[in-house]
């Protein structure tokens, strides 16, 4: 894995773990990382990472929660 050093504004108020999880979720959502890669980046197992996806409103199945909600409302 690559190591990157970042300088973040104090106002961001994120610790290293929160930032790693956030980046892993975003990269997974954009299709840049697999579930396993994203979980590893976030220092979690796959099950833990899958659980956290909902907090960020990211679907495990590649659809947004809005897409699923619209599908349910159209039936």
Question: Which keywords apply here?
Answer:
4 helices, 75 residues, globular, mainly alpha
Can I get a quick summary?
The protein has 75 residues and is an all-alpha fold. It has helices at 16-29, 35-41, 46-53, 65-74.
N-to-C span: 45 Å
From the alpha-carbon coordinates, what is the Rg to the nearest angstrom?
14 Å
Number of helices: 4
Largest sheet: none
Principal-axes geometry comes out as: globular
Helix content: 40-55%
Total beta strand runs: 0
User: Overall mean pLDDT score?
Assistant: 88
Percentage of residues in strands: under 5%
What are the segments in which pLDDT stays under 50 over at least 5 consecutive residues? none
Order of helices and strands: HHHH
- SS class: mainly alpha
What does this structure look like?
The protein is mainly α and 75 residues long. It contains four helices and no strands.
Question: How is the secondary structure organized here?
Answer:
Layout: H1 16-29, H2 35-41, H3 46-53, H4 65-74
């Amino acid at each position: 894995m690559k190591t990157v050093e970042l300088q973040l504004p104090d106002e961001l108020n994120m610790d290293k773990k929160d930032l790693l999880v956030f980046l892993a979720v975003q990269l997974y959502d954009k299709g840049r990382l697999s579930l396993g890669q994203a979980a590893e980046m976030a220092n979690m197992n796959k099950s833990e990472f899958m659980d956290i996806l909902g907090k960020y409103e990211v679907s495990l199945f590649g659809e947004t929660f809005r897409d699923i909600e619209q599908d349910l409302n159209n039936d």
